[in-house]
Amino acid sequence: MLTLTSPVDAWAHRFRAGAKLAALAVVTTGLFLIKTPLPLTIAVATTVVLYASCGAIFASAGLRLLRPLWPFILIVGLWHLWTGELAAGAAVLLRMIAAVALANFVTMTTRLSDMLDIFQRLARPLQVFGLSPRLIGLAVALVIRFIPVMLERVTLITQSWSARSVRRPRWRVLVPATLAALDDADRVAEALRARGGAG
Fold first, then answer.
1. Distance, CA of 23 to CA of 103 (rounded, Å)
2. Are 1 and 145 in contact (CB under 8 A)?
3. Residue 65's closest CA among 176, 144, 169?
4. End-to-end CA, the chain
5. Domain ranges in the chain?
6. N or C end: fewer C-beta atoms under 10 angstroms in the chain?
7. Coil, strand or helix at 83
8. Which pLDDT does position 5 carry in this prediction?
């Protein structure tokens, strides 16, 4: 399966996963406390510099990961344009782009195994409720792994529809995408059972 981890070795790969996740939490919280567009513009520009410092291939991969945001950017932008709240709309869009791009940056520069270790440690207090930290960490890891797979699957289904019809697919891709997700889930479950389960 695909992961969001970048194959390009960047300087950010050498930082510990816990430190990067903690920094992401602090910075993201700060972004949501900022209400004006100017500092948020600076935040987006800083994020662009961050990606550029890892090389053109890395930056290009990061830009592709932002493509699913465009429908939300369009909807939010048109809504605030219609209501006349341009400053508030710009702040929302800039905050969303910066937060998602920074989250992608952390994910791209962190190995999935390191993420899994962090989530398992964070889930240890839940053992008192009978929950397995390993299972929780595995569930989070599988979600992260499935994100690019499902995005690619939806893209392929949309392209298949466009090749056979002049109408836009819109909601029509939801059923085949859902069935594909269920099929992938069954295959992963079978693979886990064949390897002795997740426990």
1. 10
2. yes
3. 144
4. 21
5. 11-110, 119-194
6. C
7. helix
8. 67
